């Protein structure tokens, strides 16, 4: 019996676990959260409802962090810490499965703008997590802005917990959005539901408009929005100010490939490269879900199903492959409908913070990028410290790369934070 370890218990990881079990494998599912389901299935009481059957047939390891990963030939060594991330006495384990499926997902990408570091400016994902998981609204008067269909469920979640959503702003113009969504027939009902909710709550939805500045002293008090062209350059004279106590911004998603990089997997445009069976470039390592491309829950589940079957030694059916290919095609349409305009750096001022961890400004980045004494991404990091803070470039990395080519995914022996005491103690937990 093959042993398959799955890292990540969102839609991709859960689908992988189900299909690996059906193919006769022993399955262990790990996740940093205390409940399965990921962000998509998050509820007030965790996300276990509906997953009991799967969890009873596999080994479920909640609150488990994979902090290091070794892939030598066909041999895998997965180093895990079990226990609350902010607690002491975490258990240390090493797993050596026959196959590994990485389903670590993605996090919000937020483009910087003047004032985005103010308290009260949230990522769209953080606002939704608080609304769905804690029934907490991030503010009384909230503006939701950015790009992508994820803005719609975020606004709906905020309305459900009593927030006054003053507007939802999609930066891309109607022509761009409709071009990508034209073939998304299966999502028509979902879009109609959001439209009805916004009409009922009198929430304006504007296309071709973006947040270009947040203002406030101790926290955000107002935001400045402007109409933007297809390339996201600002149309002068179209500014409008909203009084708010919170703003939620999201410009798509950035994958979390740290473990894939640690394993030596080849990336493709920042995402983990996979073949038609969800295999990575490393033997016995598979990837599924948002780390292979942003496509939503349906695409993640379809990729997870294929990965689970193959990792367990089985063969995916034609129906599974057809569904995976269909959802991938939809993901490509989403990318066409909600691109990031190339002219967004025009929003920035010299003193705009780009790396919030190290408070690196846009001017500092431009100066360092033009300095022949700091050639290449590594020297740029050392010269400006952008990407060297606690988040290790997870938030600012794509932005720095786009602004001056200064970010790259380095192999890190330690892929996730670990205490020095935990690192120094070699004892394994039986």
Structure write-up:
This protein is an alpha/beta fold and 430 residues long. It folds into three domains: 168 residues, FAD/NAD(P)-binding domain (3-Layer(bba) Sandwich); 142 residues, FAD/NAD(P)-binding domain; 57 residues, no CATH class. It has 13 helices and 22 strands. Strand 2, helix 2 and strand 3 form a beta-alpha-beta unit.
C-alpha-based Rg, rounded: 22 Å
- Proportion of β residues? 15-25%
Structural class of the secondary elements? alpha/beta
Tally of domains: 3
Number of strands: 22
Can you name the CATH architecture of the largest domain?
A: 3-Layer(bba) Sandwich
The name CATH uses for the topology of the largest domain is: FAD/NAD(P)-binding domain
Quickly count the helices.
Answer: 13
Q: Shape, please? A: globular
CATH hierarchy class name of the largest domain:
Alpha Beta
Features:
about 425 residues, alpha/beta, FAD/NAD(P)-binding domain, 3 domains, five-stranded parallel sheet, 22 strands, about 30% helix
In short:
The protein is of the alpha/beta class. 31% of the residues lie in helices and 23% in strands. It folds into three domains: 3-107 and 254-316, 3-Layer(bba) Sandwich (FAD/NAD(P)-binding domain), CATH 3.50.50; 110-251, FAD/NAD(P)-binding domain; 348-404, no CATH class.
């Amino acid at each position: 019996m093959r042993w398959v370890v799955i890292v990540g218990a969102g839609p991709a990881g859960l689908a992988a676990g189900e299909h690996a079990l059906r193919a006769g494998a022993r399955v262990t599912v790990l996740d940093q959260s205390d409940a399965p389901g990921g962000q998509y299935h998050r509820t007030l009481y965790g996300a276990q409802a509906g997953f009991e059957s799967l969890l009873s047939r596999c080994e479920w390891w909640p609150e488990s962090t994979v902090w290091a990963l070794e892939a030598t030939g066909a041999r895998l060594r997965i180093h895990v810490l079990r226990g609350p991330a902010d607690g002491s006495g975490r258990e240390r384990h090493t797993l050596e499965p026959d196959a590994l499926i990485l389903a670590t997902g993605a996090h919000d990408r937020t483009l910087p703008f003047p004032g985005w570091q103010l308290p009260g400016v949230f990522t769209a994902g953080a606002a939704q997590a608080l609304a769905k998981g804690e029934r907490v609204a991030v503010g009384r008067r909230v503006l939701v802005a950015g790009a992508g269909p994820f803005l719609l469920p975020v606004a709906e979640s905020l309305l459900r917990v009593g927030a006054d959503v003053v507007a939802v702003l999609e930066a891309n113009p109607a022509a761009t959005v409709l071009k990508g969504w034209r073939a998304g027939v299966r999502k028509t009902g979902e879009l109609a539901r959001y439209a009805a909710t916004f009409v009922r709550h009198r929430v304006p939805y504007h296309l071709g408009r973006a947040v270009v500045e947040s203002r406030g002293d101790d926290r955000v008090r107002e935001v400045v929005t402007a109409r933007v062209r297809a390339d996201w350059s600002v149309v002068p004279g179209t500014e409008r100010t909203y009084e708010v106590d919170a703003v939620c911004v999201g410009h798509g998603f950035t994958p979390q490939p740290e473990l894939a990089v640690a394993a030596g997997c080849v990336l493709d445009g920042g995402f983990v490269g996979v073949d038609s069976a969800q295999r990575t470039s490393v033997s016995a390592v598979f990837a599924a879900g948002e780390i292979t491309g942003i496509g939503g829950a349906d695409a993640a589940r379809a990729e997870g199903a294929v990965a689970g079957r193959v990792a367990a030694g089985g063969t995916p059916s034609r129906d599974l492959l057809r569904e995976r290919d269909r959802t991938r095609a939809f993901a490509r349409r989403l990318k066409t409908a909600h691109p990031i305009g190339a002219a967004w750096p025009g929003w920035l001022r010299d003193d705009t913070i780009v790396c919030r961890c190290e408070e690196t400004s846009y001017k500092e980045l431009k100066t360092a990028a033009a300095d022949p004494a700091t050639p290449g991404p590594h020297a740029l990091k050392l010269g400006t410290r952008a990407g060297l803070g606690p988040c290790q470039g997870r938030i600012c990395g794509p932005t720095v790369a786009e602004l001056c080519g200064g970010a790259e995914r380095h192999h890190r022996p330690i892929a996730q934070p670990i205490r020095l005491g935990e690192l120094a103690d070699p004892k394994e937990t039986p």
